[in-house]
Amino acid sequence: MIYFPPAKINLGLKILGKRADGFHEIQSIFLPTNWCDVLEVVVVENGELGKLNFTCSGIEISDDNSSNTVERAHKLLRENFNLPEIDARLLKIIPTGAGLGGGSSDGSFMLKATNELCELGISNEELKSLASQLGSDCPFFIDNRPCLVSGRGEIIDPLPFSIEDLKINKLSILLIHPGVHVNTGLAFTLLNQERNNKKLQFPKLPKLPLKQWKGVLHNDFQIPIASKHPEILNAINIIEDSDAEYVQMTGSGSSVFGLYKTGNYDKDVLKTAIKKADKLGFTTYFGAL
């Protein structure tokens, strides 16, 4: 079977403080995008019990497959279930270390794929619990739908409004990854110096035009991280010049996105923005959100 683990964006990101367990308490809306990796998972008939044959192509990741979330997801299930031999092939398209959750998505989809193909009977709630052991963002990708995220990322709640009210299906997105890897530990150090005191006002979103979202949303990381990385500022400026109606960095960086009403943008202006990003060696994605 072939699966398509997607990138996500944070629609607003508030860091509420450090927890006793060392993680940080967050508040955000996570939205899945159509920018996806490709994961093929196949059960090997009459194979060696518990064996995983994993290969990865596309964007380079760590040479050590044991640190890959696909490998770790398999190991997690193998410790609790008698698994058949499995072939897993990952085509890595989503940039890594980019605030897009690509690695988290891969691991969560491996959990779901193995559960489905091996008929393990694990419920979605149990899968979320397993996914939380892989990483903070991983539980979101089990249901893989827009939701309110809190805790360290493991608490998934319905949106405080109907997703239809937000009209996500009528939006397009331009994502730019400027090729910068942001160290998460350093990001939190910078954040402590420049914490934004404004609260995120999610319930107001459906009542506001897209251009006014910046009045009720922000990403606490954006100003301190972008100030340290001119490439991120370049990406922000490129998207702002493309007449995007809402622009924000996602996660702790370094990817930046712009939102547009589908069909309500100048195609030539957008093409110019993408060419500017390409000339700088940035990675871009444009499509329906």
Description of the structure:
This protein is an alpha+beta fold and about 290 residues long. It has helices at about 70-80, 100-115, 125-130, 140-145, 165, 185-190, 220-230, 230-240, 265-280; strands at about 1-5, 5-20, 25-35, 40-45, 50-60, 85-90, 145-150, 155, 170-175, 245-250, 255-260, 285-289. It has 2 domains: about 1-155, Ribosomal Protein S5, domain 2, CATH 3.30.230.10; about 165-289, Alpha-Beta Plaits, CATH 3.30.70. It has 9 helices and 12 strands. It has a 4-stranded mixed beta sheet with strand order 1-4-6-5, with helices on one face. A 4-stranded antiparallel beta sheet has the order 2-3-7-8. Helix 7 packs across helix 8. The radius of gyration is 19 Å and the shape is globular.
Shape designation? globular
Major β-sheet, in short?
4 strands, mixed
Strand order of the largest sheet: 1-4-6-5
How many structural domains does the protein architecture include?
2
* Strand element count: 12
Helix content: 25-40%
Low-confidence stretches: none
Summarize the structure.
The protein has 289 residues and is of the alpha+beta class.
How would the blueprint of this fold be written?
Blueprint: E1 2-3, E2 6-18, E3 24-36, E4 38-43, E5 52-58, H1 69-78, E6 86-92, H2 102-117, H3 124-132, H4 140-143, E7 147-151, E8 155-157, H5 163-166, E9 171-177, H6 184-191, H7 222-228, H8 230-241, E10 246-249, E11 256-261, H9 267-279, E12 283-288
Parallel strand pairs: 5-6
Antiparallel strand pairs: 1-4, 2-3, 3-7, 4-6, 7-8, 9-11, 9-12, 10-11
Helix pairs in contact: 1-2, 2-3, 7-8, 8-9
